[in-house]
Amino acid sequence: MAIVTIDSRDATPIYAQLERGLRAAIATGRLKPGDQLPTVRQLAVDLRINANTVARVYMELERAGVIETRRGVGSFISASPAKARPPSEHQRRLKAFVTRVLADADAAGFSSDELISQLRMQQKEGA
Predict the structure, then answer these.
(1) What is the DSSP string of 62-120?
(2) Where are the domains of the chain?
(3) Mapping DSSP to helix (H, G, I), strand (E, B) and coil, where does residue 51 land?
(4) 71-84: buried (b, 16+ CB within 10 Å) or exposed (e) per residue?
(5) What is the pTM (predicted TM-score) of this model?
(6) Could you read off the pLDDT of 17-37 as tens digits, one per residue?
(7) Which of 99, 94, 67 has the alpha carbon at shortest distance from 83?
(8) What residues does 77 pair with on adjacent strands?
(9) How many CB atoms lie within 10 A of CB 44?
């Protein structure tokens, strides 16, 4: 079984599907730090995609600190599940969190200015 799948009917570019699939496999624990990835050529054959596409994704993931490539040995997972999440996922989760905090503050009768002021004060105090 392949570690990720590619849907040729999906409008999302193949490289984006592959990157998202690898990040998801790490984030869900299917791939763990230290696990070795298939070679570029092997994954390309398994998924029936161009090896240059796999190489591009591996390079992007290495640049992001998600994988580590050792010359002559292979590519290995180096990121924790939390770090493997795409930056957009982090931003989406942060936005949802802030929305909940603002809604809770509003329901408790606090203005957003009061909330921000209190956050800043507590940050300065180190609390």
Answers:
(1) HHTTSEEEETTTEEEE-S-HHHHS-HHHHHHHHHHHHHHHHHHHHHTT--HHHHHHHHH
(2) 14-80, 87-125
(3) helix
(4) eeeebebbbebeeb
(5) 0.67
(6) 999 999 989 988 899 999 999
(7) 67
(8) 67
(9) 18
Alpha carbons 98 and 84: distance in angstroms, whole number: 22
pLDDT in tens, 52-110: 999 999 999 999 999 999 999 999 999 888 778 776 766 777 888 888 888 888 899 99
The one-letter amino acid code at 61 reads: L
Structure tokens at 2: 């392949």
Among 51, 45, 39, residue whose Cα is nearest residue 15 = 51
CATH topology of domain 14-80: Arc Repressor Mutant, subunit A (1.10.10)
Place of tokens 């507590």: 122
C-alpha to C-alpha distance for 77 and 22, rounded to whole angstroms: 10
**How far is it, in rounded angstroms, from Cα 64 to Cα 84?**
9
